[in-house]
Write a structure and sequence with these properties.
By secondary structure, this protein is mainly beta. Bound molecules: 2-acetamido-2-deoxy-beta-D-glucopyranose (3 copies). This is Apple domain-containing protein.
Length: about 1000
């Protein structure tokens, strides 16, 4: 009897039936289909859903229990919570799947709904056949008309309330029981909390049942229904088995989702006991055997030694961990620890391996479906397992997966929607351990993590341990890479990694791909191998005796011994002992991770390989470089792209160079920007007179200014490789050739800096040189600078008629009457001081070739430039007496020039010719205006007309007869 009681704690009616009572009972006869007498009140009709409190008084056994019952007909669910003698028993009815879960003291048992005694109170039962469902309240309360009820009057008081009373005489075949059932309902007209005309108040059962043939027992119990309401709670958790409890044998509505082999997620690790949240990011790639974990240390301990956020990358190809401080950006290369959460021992506990996609979350067959619950307001399918492999003692694991009818639009990668998304994992220590850890999982994306950004260990290597390279693939298929860029890079990395017996894919980093019409370029950085010592876990003061496959003398430190172990060819060395004092290094084929097998030693240390399986003999940086270049040169470096349409595109590397500069400063200095105007991510097709490599953007600008073979009018600076591509063509002439570039910036020679603008003004000068169809003041400035029929000192530019007038005279040199207002045009006069570098509070001692007084610094600069009797290389300008001292002293005159401090003077050192090329002091005497490109322009010579008059003429004929005289820029031929 005790046994039965134990097994069925949930079934209080049934339980009470098992207990005999002394009270006398007169059997009644079952009265099926009795017809109500005329005038009897009709049965109350009740809503299908309700909640009520129940007090059950089991008179024959001297106890009471209380209960709450929820019936939600709309959602086809119900639950019952009971308290008896301080113990709670809960019953959950899963009508969809015909099962009942009863939970007593954190233990859940599953039974069939059909035929279960609990259905007696909730209705149903096997007799009806088919899948049972929640019965109406009338059914639930066994107010079943088919059993026949007799109205017994309304005078009765229940708890002081006036009640209608019905009686039924029943036979219950399951336990062969005969009993009377008395029902009491509140009389209509008596208001109640539910707001319905009549609510049940009480049921009373009195009867006898058969234990075994011939042995009967009597019973008597009273159920009081209190606080009957027609609105069951909405909260789904009321109807679901509680979190942290698994119900073995529960039917699976959905097989537990399987995780893919690659994923990324972000998590919050919540420790309610510790009142703490820890955040972490995880990138996981089982195929590539890589894992990255970003977090913040909980305490100060090696390798971090501070509380800065860190990135830790585990490479299970080699057993090496890269620990990086995200703020200081330093790195420690070390073995993967044996206690790390992402690793597991092999069965004989000798070496580590990476946990599989599922086992990272401890997912396996032991999980039972636990129904649907909400996590963060999201509907989830929950799977539960009780297991002992997480900590000492039993723990309940609950994994929440996004319900199948939900979708998650992630913001990562190609796939818009990741199915089977884990939402939450909770781990609860069962029994006395009582702790809870909640892993809230966010942004779960089951795609290949971007190896480039996710697994970047380049901070762990210095510049000598890296080779930057660029591989050229002659191919016109570059545009395909707009779509297949990541795939191409991944393929190329895998290809490089597979060369020469295998490099870890981590060693190919910072890869980029770009292309032009004829080539695809891959730029990347090759890293050195990890130090061999980082592949072995140290057991200090231990040795593995009698395990010597090879003994090496004269080895003094563990690094060299590890190097030996890692590179030995004749066998696979999996552990070694190093006895530094004796200078003995002993290599062994065995793993000896289990410290118990090792002997103590005063002067030796034992090291054992972190990972098992195939051991890749990683080659060092220079060897890897040789192998890679060899493959490219031989034409065997081929990347195959499998396209969506089923076709293949093979890209064959033709050329490889390490002549690149990675991550140079992309931002040009102010000085460079004085001479060039920059356009980010632009390039010009076919503008490549000269290519320099491994230079900075400022060096490129200087090279362009100093170029003497051709006049460098523009350059492209490729900030991924440090390539500097110079051209004699000015992009303003061919704006149509400018295209977007994903790796280069375009710098166009700017001539405007050489002029000072006076807006709304023209200056009459005796020049007849006029250009039409000039699109910008910069173009006009360039014409002025490059003009060599006379020394162009200024120009007027009228944007409304796209016309450019070159001037022979500087604004300093014309009479005031020649300066006119003209709102449509602007005047520009040459700055000379900009061609000089200024050193304040200095003067050049005793080298004055000519001294002029009463001029401005700008005028002084002009005089220096125009000086013909000697090559003026610098001047002093002393502000207190407006004195200008021209000098042929150049800074290159090493040893002959003394610069000394001065309170009022400044030294201007000549740096550029008027055409912008770099000033070099001529060795012979005589003035050179620098390299002038031949002007490929036709010129419109209209004779000595006043500029004002020309405006009128052009305005009048614009678009008509003057068209025949239209001048346009054309590509200058390269000339010297
Ligand atoms: C429940 O009933 C089904 C048949 O209806 C039977 O196959 C199953 O074994 C039963 N389960 C339990 C726990 O009694
Ligand atoms: C119940 O009543 C039936 C007749 O209606 C009778 O045959 C049976 O013996 C009774 N059982 C008990 C336990 O009194
Ligand atoms: C970074 O440098 C600090 C200070 O030298 C050191 O304590 C710490 O261990 C280093 N961190 C890593 C991850 O190497």
């Amino acid at each position: 009897m005790d046994d039965i009681f134990y097994r069925l704690p949930k079934a209080f009616i049934f339980v009470t039936l098992l207990v005999s009572a002394e009270a006398a009972w007169t059997p009644c006869s079952s009265t099926p289909n009795v017809s109500p007498k005329p005038g009897d009140p009709a049965l109350p009709s009740l809503p299908p859903s309700f909640q009520t409190r129940i007090e059950a008084n089991i008179l024959d056994a001297n106890y009471s229990l209380s209960a709450v019952e929820y019936v939600d007909d709309e959602n086809n669910r119900a639950a019952l919570r009971m308290w008896r003698n301080g113990i709670e028993s809960d019953v959950y009815f899963d009508y969809d799947n015909n099962q009942i879960f009863s939970v007593v003291e954190n233990t859940c048992t599953v039974s069939n709904l059909t035929g279960d005694a609990n259905t007696v109170i909730f209705g149903g039962g096997g007799a009806a056949g088919g899948i049972p469902h929640v019965y109406s309240t009338a059914g639930v309360l066994h107010f079943a008309k088919e059993l026949g009820e007799t109205y017994m009057g309304s005078a009765t008081l229940v708890r002081g309330l006036k009640a209608n009373h019905w009686q039924t005489c029943m036979y219950w075949p399951v336990v062969r029981a005969n009993f009377t059932l008395d029902y009491y309902f509140s009389v209509p007209g008596w208001n109640n909390s539910a707001g319905t005309p009549s609510v049940p108040l009480r049921a009373e059962v009195t009867g006898v049942y058969t234990i075994v043939n011939g042995v009967t027992q009597q019973f008597h119990h009273i159920y009081d229904y209190i606080d009957f309401r027609t609105t069951p709670p909405d909260d789904p958790s009321v109807y679901e088995t509680p979190a942290g409890i698994s119900c073995p044998g529960r039917k699976k509505v959905r097989d537990m989702p399987k995780l893919k082999s690659k994923y990324y997620y972000r998590e919050e690790i919540i420790s309610p006991g510790g009142q703490q949240i820890q955040q972490a990011d995880v990138w996981y790639d089982f195929d590539w055997q890589l894992l990255r974990y970003d977090s913040r240390p909980l305490d100060i301990s090696p390798p971090y030694n501070n509380l800065n956020p860190y990135t830790e990358i585990h490479d299970y190809n080699t057993g090496v961990a890269y620990a990086m401080d995200k703020l200081i950006k330093n790195c420690t290369i070390m073995p993967i620890e044996n206690g790390t959460w992402d690793s597991a021992y092999n069965s004989s506990r000798q070496f580590l391996h990476m946990r599989s996609p599922a086992s990272l979350f401890f997912l396996d067959d032991s999980y039972a479906y636990s129904g649907q619950r909400k996590a963060r307001g999201i509907d989830c399918d929950v799977y539960t397992s009780t297991r002992s492999d997480f900590s000492d003692g039993l723990n309940v694991f609950e994994m929440y997966f996004l319900r199948e009818d939900w979708s998650a639009m992630d913001n990562i990668g190609f796939d818009t929607d990741t199915p089977d998304i884990p939402i939450r994992l909770t781990i609860t220590g069962a029994g006395d351990f009582g702790f809870t850890v909640i892993y809230e999982l966010y942004d779960f994306d089951q795609e290949t993590p971007d190896i480039q950004t996710a697994f970047d260990i380049s901070n762990c290597y210095n510049d000598l341990e890296k080779i930057d390279f660029r591989i050229t693939f002659p191919s016109k298929a570059g545009n395909l890479l707009a779509e297949y860029r990541t795939i191409f890079i991944d393929q190329a990395i895998l290809l490089i990694a597979s060369l020469s017996g295998g490099l870890s894919p981590l060693r190919i980093t910072h890869t980029e791909v770009h292309w032009d019409d004829n080539n695809v370029y891959m730029v990347g950085t090759l890293l050195d191998k990890a130090p061999p010592i980082a592949k072995y876990i140290k057991s200090p003061s231990k040795v593995a005796p009698f395990k010597n496959a090879q003994t090496l003398q004269g080895v003094t430190d563990p690094y060299s011994c590890a190097e030996q172990c890692d590179s030995v060819d004749t066998f696979t060395c999996n552990s070694f002992d190093i006895c530094a004092g004796k200078q003995v290094c002993t290599l062994s084929k065995d793993y000896n991770s289990d410290g118990a097998k090792l002997s103590d030693s005063l002067e030796c240390d034992h090291y054992t390989r972190v990972v098992g399986g195939r051991v890749d003999k990683e080659i060092a940086l220079n060897d890897a470089w040789i192998v890679l270049t060899d493959q490219v040169v031989k034409g065997t470096f081929q990347v195959t792209l499998n396209l969506d349409d089923g076709s293949k595109q093979v890209l064959k590397g033709s050329d490889i160079t390490s002549d690149v500069l990675r991550n140079p400063n992309r931002v040009a200095s102010k000085t460079a920007l004085q001479h060039f105007s920059g356009q980010a991510n632009k390039q010009v097709n076919g503008f490549d007179d000269l290519i320099l490599t491994q230079v900075s953007v400022d060096d490129c600008a200087n090279e362009c200014l100093g170029e003497i073979i051709f006049t460098c009018q523009s350059f492209e600076y490729c900030y991924d490789t440090g390539y500097c591509i110079m051209s004699h063509t000015h992009p303003d002439e061919r704006p149509d050739l400018i295209i977007a570039s994903d790796h280069c910036d375009l710098y166009t020679r700017s001539y405007m800096a050489k002029f000072t603008e006076t807006p709304g003004t023209t200056v009459l000068s005796s020049s007849d040189t006029i250009y039409q169809n000039i699109n910008s003041d910069n173009q006009c400035a360039r014409l002025c600078v490059d003009y060599n029929e006379f020394d162009c000192k200024s120009f007027d530019y009228c944007p409304n008629i796209n016309t450019c007038f070159l001037g022979k005279k500087h604004v300093f040199d014309v009479p005031k009457s020649n300066i006119k207002e003209d709102p449509q045009c602007n005047h520009y006069s040459r700055n000379y001081a900009d061609d000089f570098k200024l050193k304040a509070h200095k003067e050049i001692a005793l080298r004055d070739n000519r001294v002029i007084e009463g001029v401005s610094a700008e005028q002084c600069a002009k005089m220096c430039v125009e000086e013909e009797s000697f090559s003026c290389a610098s001047f002093d300008y002393c502000g207190n007496m407006t004195e200008c001292r021209l000098s042929d002293a150049a800074m290159s005159d090493v040893g002959q020039v003394t610069i000394q401090a001065s309170t009022f003077c400044e030294v201007y050192i000549r740096s550029y010719y008027p055409d912008g090329s770099v000033y070099t002091k001529p060795t012979a005497s005589g003035y050179s205006s620098g390299a002038m490109g031949g002007l490929g322009f036709a010129m419109l010579v209209l004779g000595a007309l006043l500029a004002v008059g020309i405006y009128v003429a052009i305005g009048k004929y614009q678009g008509k007869s003057l068209d025949s005289m239209t001048i346009s820029f054309k590509n200058m031929e390269n000339s010297d």
